[in-house]
Amino acid sequence: MSLIQEKFSSLFSNFEVTTQARPDGGILLTLRGGEDKVFKRSISYQQLHNGDQLSWVISAIRRDLAEQASELPQISMLQSQQRFALPTYHSL
Predict the structure, then answer these.
(1) By C-alpha distance, which of 71, 73, 41, 77 is closest to 57?
(2) What residue spans define the domains of the chain?
(3) What is the pLDDT of residues 8-62, one digit of tens each?
(4) Residue 86: strand, helix, or coil
(5) Sorted alphabetically, which InterPro entries does this protein's record hold (predicted)?
């Protein structure tokens, strides 16, 4: 296991973590969770080797995983909600 994979494994311990090298020096990160859920993210060489960018990527992955877990309502359910006309203003 590479150092990068070990780091992501410790950060996302609830997932099976695999990394695959990309030709540009980056990686393809794959997180496998329960119920056949798979999350993939491409991380560039620059993001891996810049502390601020790596922190941002980790935060973005956590946000995306949280969004997936909440299971947002389907679009068809949102479209069935009543819609109201916007107010109209007239100048005097």
Answers:
(1) 41
(2) 3-68
(3) 999 998 899 999 999 999 999 999 987 778 899 999 999 999 989 998 999 889 8
(4) coil
(5) DUF3509
